[in-house]
Design brief:
It holds the Pfam family NSUN5_fdxn-like. Keywords: Methyltransferase, Transferase. With 246 residues, the protein is of the alpha+beta class. It contains 11 helices and 5 strands. The protein has 2 domains: 151 residues; 73 residues, Alpha-Beta Plaits (2-Layer Sandwich), CATH 3.30.70. A 5-stranded mixed sheet has the order 2-3-4-1-5.
């Protein structure tokens, strides 16, 4: 299960994740002034129904939606510059899905997504995926032109300075993790982490890579260095939802 979770995140997501991310993005995307609207997102007056398979699916759906929001202007520019948008076969109601899946496609360097046999296909996702992938060369070229235009080595460098500073601050914050006491005791968590090479310290100021400490106010919360996020998520403790990242 742990290896499957890692593989999905690296090579794309299940269809349901894209649909949920698109619904979230539909409700949070930045509305442009009417005289500046070039990309239309359809009607978002009705709150979407979100159904998540598990905690992991919920987390990556929100991550994908907020990443698309962060790069909304860039993604719209790529769609327009490549002439991939507008498209008569993709209605306005699927524009959010188009933007969300474009972000994920460029994040995978325009490589094909790995499809899993146990996955239940969603027609809208497969339709948008085929459409984007058929224009991957034009989309990649449009992205390259955007980077040249902004003199940026990566898309992160295109973000406004205020957002970049916010991300730098957020990435430096320690990670807070809840112990799911319905599934495991704190003592068993400490024992398991020790086997994995982690050392318990007294405070955040004592952090030295593979270390953690108890929260001073909540005895079922652990705190880890921010640099350990990916490694933590690959532990069985997280795959089994015995630890939950906040």
């Amino acid at each position: 299960e742990k290896r499957t979770m890692t593989l999905i995140e690296k090579n794309g997501y299940h269809d349901s994740v894209y649909m949920n991310a698109a619904k979230i993005f539909q409700g949070i995307h930045t509305e442009k002034r009417k005289d500046r609207v070039l990309v239309r997102y359809g009607d978002d007056s009705v709150s979407p129904m979100l159904t998540f398979k598990d905690e992991y699916s919920q987390r990556v759906s929100y991550e994908l939606a907020f990443n698309a929001l962060k790069y909304q202007d860039l993604l719209e520019e790529i769609l327009l510059d490549s002439c991939v948008y507008p498209c008569q076969s993709i209605p306005d109601e699927l524009t959010s899905l188009l933007v969300v899946m474009l972000y994920d496609l460029q994040d995978r360097k325009f490589q094909a997504r790995e499809i899993f046999d146990e996955e239940e296909p969603v027609a809208e996702v497969r339709k948008v995926e085929r459409y984007l992938y058929s224009f991957r060369t034009k989309l990649a070229a449009a992205l390259a032109r955007c980077r040249i235009k902004h003199d940026a080595l990566s898309i992160e460098c295109i973000l406004p300075e205020t957002i970049r500073k916010q991300e730098q601050r957020a990435s430096a914050l320690p990670l807070c993790v809840w112990i799911n006491t319905f599934k495991i005791s704190p003592q068993d968590v400490f024992r398991d982490l020790k086997k994995k090479g982690f050392t318990r310290v007294e405070t955040v100021s004592d952090f030295d890579h593979y270390t953690f400490c108890m929260d001073q106010h909540c005895h079922d919360v652990l705190v880890f260095p921010s640099s350990l996020k990916e490694e933590l998520l690959n532990l069985d403790l997280f795959a089994d939802c015995k630890l939950v990242l906040q």
